[in-house]
Amino acid sequence: MNKADNNIVKNYQKKVKLIKKYNKFYYNNDSPKVSDAEYDKLKREIIKIEEKNKFLSKFGSVKNLVGSEPSGKFKKIKHSKPMLSLSNAFNKEDISNFLKKINNYLNNIKMKIEIFSEPKIDGISATLIYENGSLIKGISRGDGETGEDILENLKTINQIPKNIKDKNIPKILEIRGEVYIGKKDFQSIKDKFANPRNAAGGSLRQKDPKDTAKIPLKFLAHGFGKIDPMNFETQSEFINKIKTWGFTTNPFNKLLKDIDDIEDHHSRIEKMRSSLDYDIDGLVCKVNNIKLQSRLGNTSNSPRWATAYKFSSEKASTKINDITIQVGRTGAITPVAKVEPVTVGGVVVSNATLHNEDEIIRKDIRIGDYITIQRAGDVIPQVVSVDKSKRKKESKKYVFPEKCLCGFTTKKEISKTTKKEDAVRRCLRGFECDFTAREKLKHIVSKEAFNIEGLGKKVIDNFWELKFIRKPSDIFNLDYYKIQNLEGWGLLSINNLKKAIEKSKNIVLDRFIYSIGIRHIGQENAKILANFFKTPEKFSVLFNQSKRKKILTNLEELDGIGFTQVESIENFFSNNTNSENINSLMAVLNISNSRKINRKGKFGNKNIMFTGGFEKMSRSEAKTLAENNGAKILGTVSKKLDYLVIGDTKPTRSKIEKAKKLKIQIINEKDWYKLLNR
Ligand code: IVH
């Protein structure tokens, strides 16, 4: 080794020794010797030296020493089409509603809607992209929008074809499916993992594909992302074709023609469930016709054309030891039965929801009662029935507390539209109530909101108790030195948390609006509001009491935002603590203007309103079609309106009169179809 190299090695080893020392301080929960910034600087310096002097690799790498963030292990890749989740159905009525909604959306088309059903495997979803028949990309689901490049690991799976030989293969073929471990194969590795699903996930995310190959993973194909050119008409045709291309599909997939067919098949599969070599938790029911699938489209998270029909939930008997209340993020008070711990479907349950006061009265549920509870999928266990024969004579009716856990009186609100009293009691103090605030914080960090990995509900509870996080902006001003002294936190997890929090500071306006948890403002409404306000600056005008009024009147013009939403926004911001908290949160964030919505197309930059029903489509589909062609949909007639589209079925006279007065162009049903080339 020459002298220059020798010096490099010396300098390198000195720095590595230092960082090892720092690591020790972290791991041994001692007081840290350097600031985080200094630590990071040193780490960067070492990595730089390593990169410049490849010969240093024989000494190992600092990257391995401190371990890299797990989610940074793989390259991120944006999905061509989002990987969505599925809505759930638990019984015949839910399935009937699913079918009805489809019919309503398509506006009772005369056509019979065929359903393609597939067993729902409890595995890990992945997507495979083939270009001219060769596998070129393999991506994990990630958050649905962006996944991780796990191609090399996926390639170790035998059931994934690497090359497809067929003249008629589409140029781009994206196959989606489920990676899983068979129950038998799981037996040999069961000591290392909690369940087959965890094992499959862990194995797929190994850094070294050789480690993935050690575990016998399988792949079942069930769907598609981008296909170009697309020449499938139905899901069943797609599934049959990909079988000939070498993909494994489920032999219990079946085309079903009506609800009775679905019921029969569902109970048949449920009966054979335990004999299968993989875990299934229901049947996925998909509209078979792909054109209808695209007409139906998606809601925020799940397609309208598919649902998961879960198998019946498992039941168990137990006793109510106590009834307590829980406060939700909107202040809703939910009674909870504390029950004698009992195993239901492999999980120990000690809490069951009692929904609300009315439910307790209706079922006359009391402390000390013997009850049957059920647990379906990932939903909270529920009380199904009370065995009154076992009730003691001295048992007393349960009196629902009128006060929140914070000590303030709760209210049942009266709906301004229906004039009916709400079944739910609420604490209306927002962030001023510690119990509501804690739940609001859990909502803020959740997947659909800020999506902060490593900061889940349990951590929020822990940090709340320790007074590390009491208001939203605290999340972004955490003192990591205090955290590192806590049990369960190491250098790696702290670094990951820091990165995840830092990353989440960049947020788009609609996601931000959803995150702050205004009651009645879900993801869809948040999008509408973000498109209205456009920038965070304009949104902040809501903090100003005198200007808020005018804005709120304007908001009522938007289709989708009604009196209920406007009132809720007013309630939220008129509470000073809420306003202050959101204001200080905004100060630490980089909120970007909302995703640009498409305002190009046939109705580019035009404001459209609909009244009356159409024969060939539902109002929702008409709205979506107009929006996809650049329109903004309004909910009231005003000078801003460009077109009023009138359906033949019961249009509102007064709206037409007003539009005529304001000389707004009126489009009838026939012309509407013409404009859409239908
Ligand atoms: S369809 C767009 N089909 O279930 C519809 N999903 O809860 C979503 N899954 O992430 C996918 N078996 O991982 C579909 N036959 C099947 C499935 C299936 C299992 C998983 C999939 C998805 C999750 C949705």
Q: What can you tell me about this protein's structure?
A:
The chain is of the alpha+beta class. The protein has five domains: 3-61, Helix hairpin bin (Helix Hairpins); 76-310, 2-Layer Sandwich (D-amino Acid Aminotransferase, Chain A, domain 1), CATH 3.30.470.30; 313-428, OB fold (Dihydrolipoamide Acetyltransferase, E2P); 434-592, 5' to 3' exonuclease, C-terminal subdomain (DNA polymerase, domain 1); 607-675, 3-Layer(aba) Sandwich (Rossmann fold), CATH 3.40.50. Helices cover 36% and strands 21% of the residues. The strands form seven sheets. The chain has a five-stranded mixed β-sheet. Helix 17 (509-515) packs across helix 18 and helix 20 packs antiparallel against helix 21 (563-574). It starts with a helix and ends with a helix. 2-(butylsulfanyl)adenosine binds at residues 84-86, 118, 120-121, 125, 141, 178, 222-223, 284, 303, 306, 308. 2-(butylsulfanyl)adenosine (IVH) is lined by residues 84-86, 118, 120-121, 125, 141, 178, 222-223, 284, 303, 306, 308.
CATH H level, superfamily name of the largest domain: DNA ligase/mRNA capping enzyme
Largest sheet: 5 strands, mixed
* Helix-and-strand structural type: alpha+beta
CA-based gyration radius: 29 Å
CATH fold type of the largest domain = D-amino Acid Aminotransferase, Chain A, domain 1
Would you report the number of β strands? 24
Q: Alpha-carbon distance between the termini? A: 78 Å
Helical content band: 25-40%
- The neighbouring-strand order within the major sheet is 2-11-10-3-9
Average pLDDT number: 89
> What share of residues are in beta strands?
15-25%
Instruction: Please give the oligomerization state of what you see.
Output: single chain
- Structure ligands: 2-(butylsulfanyl)adenosine
List unreliable stretches of 5+ residues: 27-31, 64-71
Domain unit count: 5
Summed up, the helix count is 25
Please state the overall shape, judged from the principal axes of the Cα atoms.
globular
Briefly, what CATH class of the largest domain?
Alpha Beta
Provide the CATH architecture of the largest domain.
Answer: 2-Layer Sandwich
